[in-house]
Amino acid sequence: MSKKHKGQTIKVGDVEYPVVQTFTVLYPGWASDNTGYVVKKGEKHALVLTSHGTPYLATQHHFMETLQIMEHAAQEARHAYAMAFLP
Q: What residue numbers bound the domain in which 21 lies?
């Protein structure tokens, strides 16, 4: 679930970005780096992810790869649910 964080910032390198909202990032087998950030970058928005706790600006390509990983995990979970609970 996304959450808005009025007044919160996140530092990427030497630059502080205002956080517009956060969202959950699912990395299978990884216990950290599970929060993503929508930040204000000039007149636009950007996405910040973390790697081993270090924030970085995600490229569109990298984020699409991350999204595919999350969608695959959700698909596996739906399949397991169907096997266990549906006739």
A: 3-85
